Amino acid sequence: MKISFPRRTVAIIATVGAFAAIGVGSASASSTMPASNPSDYSGLNKTATAQVFNVTISGSKLQGAAFTQTVNNNLMGGMGATVSVKKAVQDGMVTYQTITVTPTKVGQVTSTITNAFATLSGGNYGSAVIRSTVLNQAGTSYSVKLWFDQQGTDPSVNLKFYLYHS
Fold it and tell me: Per-residue pLDDT tens for 26-55?
């Protein structure tokens, strides 16, 4: 079957337009990448502008009463943070708990949290789940929300966060 010139021209223009739309879509998709490489916290750690903290909260301490724990780098005018574990709240078969990390102010030094991570280790599979983690935009707090099942041994919560002199 022979296709007329106007129909062939319309088909070619439509094909070129489709390829152009695909090109624009893939170009805009790549623009969501970070503008620069992430900060090298180990380099900042050497200059004492940033400090890495690792805190482990034992699974046996979780699902109980509220408590706080303070960590610092033991330097004069140094950096530190308070780790607050709220009292566990039970709702049916699920227990909820929140852990919050806030930088402490030492003398004139104020620190901000620049990055933070939370993981679970040990315990029984599925006995606890990290439901959410939030680092607020100003870097003044980091919170971890946990859900616990009523069965098994609770895992430990491992927190790793970076404080930066501001």
Answer: 444 443 444 444 555 555 555 557 788 899
**Of residues 96, 145, 154, the one with CA closest to residue 125:** 154
Q: What's the pTM? A: 0.69
CB–CB of 97/131 below 8 Å?
no
In terms of Cβ atoms closer than 10 Å to its own Cβ (0-12, 13-18, 19+), residue 101 is buried
Q: Residue 118 — pLDDT band, cuts 50, 70, 90?
A: very high
Write the DSSP string, the chain.
Answer: -PPPHHHHHHHHHHHHHHHHHHHHHHHHHHTTS-SSPPP-HHHHHHTTSEEEEEEEE-TTTTTSS-EEEEEE---TT--EEEEEEPPPEEETTEEEEEEEEEEPPBTTB-EEEEEEEEEEESS-TTSEEEEEEEE-TTSS-EEEEEEE-SSSPPPEEEEEEEEEE-
